[in-house]
Amino acid sequence: MHPLPLEYGVLIAHGWEYCNHFCKGRTGAFPIIVNRINRVGWASPTKYHAIAHITYFLVGDAHPTAMTRHALPLNFIRCTQPYRSFIFLQKIGNTPRKDCMPKNAVMSNAWETALAQFDQVSKLMQLSEDIHQALRNFDRMLTVSVPIRMDDGFLRVFTGFRVQHNAARGPYKGGVRYHPELTFDDLKALAMEMTWKCSLSGVPFGGAKGGIICNPKTLSKGELERLTRRYTYAIMPIIGIEKDIPAPDVNTNEQIMAWMMDTYSTNNGYCIPGIVTGKPINVGGSLGRTDATGLGIAYTIANAIRYKKMHLKDLKVIIQGYGNVGSAVGKFLSEMGCKIVAVSSSKGGVYNPKGLSHDALMKHYKENGSFDHLPHAGGITNESLLELPCDVLVPAAMSNQITKENAGRIRAKLIVEGANGPTTIEADQLLAERKISVVPDILANAGGVIVSYFEWVQDVQCYFWCEHEVNAKLKNILDRTYEEVHALSQVKKLSMRTAAMTIAVKRVADAISVRGLYP
């Protein structure tokens, strides 16, 4: 807890989970009762006012930005969005100091980035205001309580979400992530991006995203299973094989998907493998699904290099985030003859300009849990890794890694986005000015959702393909999509991101227009 002056008290409400914090030695009125987040009792509501730092929730029914510095009586505060929020209690007549704000009050701007990208493309396309507003908003945003019995016998209530952006082109599709810092804004950005990703590659799905605010690393296998099953039961009314098909994402895997599939099937009385994708092979999963995102990124790099008249042999590649996706990229690029010169995990990375062995990296990480002290390699931070000289940089970790602060120091010739939203709007502009090409996430990492679509098709048909067929179909779609995006970028003199977004948004807009408005 950030230290506060004695004249201030602070309530931090995290989603629907809550806690009271009191400043020791404080006298006077305090928030004394908190029932979730939308009901607050005060010892003396007339004596204090609240100033809200509003980034992730609304006050009353007003627009959040309009209310950021507006004072309201505490008994009139009402939170209408289940976002992480910070409410500062100010004694009347005093001005809150900047150093009163907790250090972690600055949140990710993934949603603002996604919205700004869409607004820019919408303006460029001269999209009608009706379509623009339809696509700026969401079909459904669900918040659920996820109570489970912990191993110690105590009940703990987690918060879960499912965000559905647009279903004009087909059922919703999107991953489920478990993360302690998950916010509604993160999910909104990811759901919107999934709509564009599916549209761009021609997959007949709309975008969705879901998850639970939790740290799965602190949960036992039994707790994780109970959490997953209860979450699945809570979102069951809005998911279905023709409604919304979840998939793995950050901190979830094929075991989580198997539990979700079993929970949904058990409650419906028969086996429904197509309700989720990314499952184990023996319960309806698809061959090639595990490495699909990484293989798709490798195919995309091969396409980009071909258009740049470069060669894969000894191509120097840096991969930030050598996890499930990043390591698959490294494996396939190594097989293609590329030289992996630097990689990293959340704990830091390693660098060797002469190249790193993928097998040696994986063996060392499995044995030690990090890349520290890897033989014949020097240690490096995630931040420094991004600024090393290379032919191709693959940010495959989290969002907002390349920003206006470090974009001027990037020395890669080509950036291929393995993660969702790793480059901010300001960084995009700086990279364009420096003539550094960026292959956007909705094109580069679409391999996962494409093969998820293949898995869904196989489940529905009850007819399964060999891995060669899966990979061949994936390559065909990505080759075609890259060619379409590259051609538009050349003809219209657009960046690859703008060209990709233009194609994706137009397809969704056309679907909305031809379907019309009901009623």
Bin the helical content: 25-40%
Q: Give me the count of strands.
A: 19
Distance from first to last alpha carbon: 51 Å
Indicate the proportion of strand residues: 15-25%
Lateral arrangement of strands in the main beta sheet: 16-15-14-13-17-18-19
Global morphology? globular
Structural class assignment? alpha/beta
Low-confidence stretches: 1-108
Largest sheet: 7 strands, mixed
Annotation field: number of helices? 14
- The Rg value, from CA coordinates, equals 24 Å
Mean pLDDT: 83
Report on this structure:
The structure is a single chain. By secondary structure, the chain is an alpha/beta fold. It is 36% helix and 22% strand. The chain has 14 helices and 19 strands. The protein has helices at 110-125, 129-136, 184-201, 221-235, 254-268, 292-307, 324-335, 358-368, 382-385, 425-433, 441-444, 447-461, 467-492, 496-515; strands spanning 9-14, 17-21, 31-35, 39-42, 48-53, 71-73, 85-91, 140-149, 155-166, 172-179, 206-213, 244-248, 316-320, 339-345, 348-351, 378-380, 390-395, 412-416, 437-439. The strands form four sheets. It has a seven-stranded mixed sheet with strand order 16-15-14-13-17-18-19, sandwiched between helices. The chain starts with 8 loop residues before the first strand and ends with a helix. Mean pLDDT is 83; it is low at 1-108.
